[in-house]
Amino acid sequence: MRLIGSVYSSSFQHPIGGSILKMTSLEQHPGRSSAHIPLEKIAPNIWEVPTSYNPGMKVPARIYADDDLIAKMKTDMTIQQCVNVAHLDGIYKYSITMPDGHEGYGFPIGGVAATDYDEGLISPGGVGYDINCGVRLIRTNLSEEEVRPVLPKLVDTIFNMIPSGLGSKGQIRVSTSELDKVVTDGVEWAVDKGYGWPDDPKTIEEGGCLESADPSKVSNNAKSRGAPQLGSLGSGNHFVEIEKADKIFDKPVADRFGITKPDQILILIHTGSRGYGHQICSDYLRVMEHAVRKYNINLPDRELAACPANSPEAEQYLPAMAAAANFAWVNRQMITHWARQAFEKIFAKPSDSMDMRIVYDVCHNIAKVEQHKVDGGLKKVFVHRKGATRAFPPGHPDIPAQYRDIGQPVLLPGSMGTSSWVLVGTPKSMELSFGTTAHGAGRFMSRSAAKRKWWGADLKKSLEARGIVIRAAAMEVVAEEAPDAYKDVDRVAEVSHQLGIGTKVVRMVPIGVAKG
Amino acid sequence: MTDAFVEAWGPTMERAFAQAGIALFETMMYTDKITPRNTEDITVEGHDEKELLYNFLETLLLKFEIDGKALGRFGVHVINQGKDSLNLTGTANGEPYDPEKHGRKIEVKGVTYHQMAIQKERDRVLLRFLLDL
Questions:
Q1: Is the CB of residue A75 less than 8 Å away from at least one CB of chain B?
Q2: What does the DSSP 8-state code read for residue A91?
Q3: Are A259 and A266 in contact (CB under 8 A)?
Q4: CATH code at B90?
Q5: ∠ CA A91-A93-A98 to the nearest 5 degrees?
Q6: Beta bridge partner(s), residue A410
Q7: Of A277, A281, A284, A361, residue with least CA distance to A327
């Protein structure tokens, strides 16, 4: 195996013998591609690997992408991983990869799999390390014209009020016993403590609380990691952005979401369950490693580590996962509260007078119990969505009452300096993707490659020249999150729209970014 | 995928593990800025070498995440086969993490088994692993 990619960190000389450490990245790794896998284009933007490709496949592997996006997926393990997921016991219809799909851990990022509620497998790898990583959109009644003059001050205030970056800790301290209450009650806990408005939970997926959460299934390590981090953004691709509505594609639906005019100011929050969820994932991957041996589960890749849905291991993982999901919703809720406070401070008026309501909050790393039509009948399934967003159609009972007749809002964050999207769920998503669409831009270039190509301070200048104000805890992260490092989010939204699994409502562009 | 793919090596398994520890912290901060003021004892078990490496790195990550330690120097004294598992004992040197002094790079969400490899070559041991960022 040959290594490409330059030295990421420094070299270390050991006193005896000398040893060097290099970092490169997965996407850059040679000799790993999916180019050899037979792909059939069965319709525009729909590709399939038939079960005949590998006798272990229970269902076909299906990828939703245009020609350019599929070409990129062939250069890494994305399609192979989609094929691997098709091996899971109890999987229905097809293993799916979304247009923003890229190589992940076991499952591809952008992977969707629905497994039988009784006889399927549950895989923490199909949820991911950052359980309930997700996105929240808050609207305002302000226009760009009103915000522009105070933008640098506003972004500074948000950046200072919301802890971000490596080792960031929340402004408040909760004990581990209080944390158990946080993850049991979800967003209601935050609202009770004054971090939000009574109506806030209504426009959050699941009302901001999975009832199945059980903190007794969560390790002390996870609790110790999580407690100080509640109400913090973290680092990497997580951010708080001030957006302006750039183009409205579906006026009636946009009006219902409260986005009524171009140049309207919105706030987009992207973060997850922090160390709490990361540790739960890590703890249960270890449990699943043993479960695979215990139940003699045959997997093409050990990283798919899974257990039967009706096993004691699943009975422990799912309530722990739900606890992490609730942590993430509370985390985004507290960040919402501080974002409102920042606006109050700068505009010297109450946030409700600025109509700072939550448009919606989606999770894009989760496993959910849902009912879906399979072969004409209704089946109870676990839908794994790893880097994929629920996109339920009009009329679905799980959609907040106020949106039930128009469909569920879907949020696709882009990257710094590029657009983000509001889509809406459709009946087609139930037919094609278990009520799911993409989750964002998807990484196109490795972090280390991005860092070689751009330098943080230059990038900051070029963004600021385009009117985007950015504040970041680490300039290195700015380079790693360079917009060109991401797949074109407009293209991803277009594929979703053309397939009809989530149709275009509003395109937003950032004017201010605060990140870790 | 948001990740760091790491290769670390040394003349012995113990020294390669020590390099892996540096790699983990170098992903998050500038390890050359860490003053080795305090010493932490590290003991880890694993049922095979890969699990030992996973558990070693996770133990170190938790020293940062829970105890707020910046660790920049590692001495892995011995890795030996116990009754049912491999055992590692060693030390880690560092000080409380100070973003002003040690810098802020990227958070590590977790250690993974993805593409993990432990290769014993003629004159060195090579470790490969991926950190989820």
A1: no
A2: B
A3: yes
A4: 3.55.10.10
A5: 95
A6: A423
A7: A277
Domain of residue B11 covers 3-132
Pairing of strands A61-64, A420-424: unpaired
- Nearest chain A residue to B70 by CA: give it: A167
Cβ-defined contact of A282 to B110 (cutoff 8 Å): yes
Q: What is the DSSP string of A365-417?
A: EEEEEEEEEETTEEEEEEEEEES-EE-PPTT-TTS-GGGTTT--EEEE---TT
ipTM of the modeled complex: 0.88
Please count the structural domains in chain B.
1
For A22, the closest of B7, B66, B103 (CB atoms) is B7
Q: How is residue A313 written in tokens?
A: 């291991």
A182-197 pLDDT, tens digit per residue, is 999 999 999 999 999 9
Contact A19, B9 (CB under 8 A): yes
Using one digit for the tens of pLDDT, what is the confidence trace for A370-416?
999 998 999 999 999 999 999 999 999 999 999 999 999 999 998 77
Which of A21, A105, A448 is nearest residue B19 as measured by Cβ atoms?
A21
Cα A437 → chain centroid: 12
Determine contact, residues A427/A435, Cβ cutoff 8 Å: no
What b/e string do you get for A129-168 counting C-beta neighbours within 10 Å, with b at 16 or more? bbbbbbbbbbbbebebeebbeebeebbbbbbebbbbbbbb
Q: Which of B29, B47, B98, B109 would you mutate first to test chain A, the one with the most A CBs within 10 A?
A: B109
Cα–Cα distances in angstroms (integers) from residue A85 to residues A59, A72, A305, in the given order = 9, 19, 11
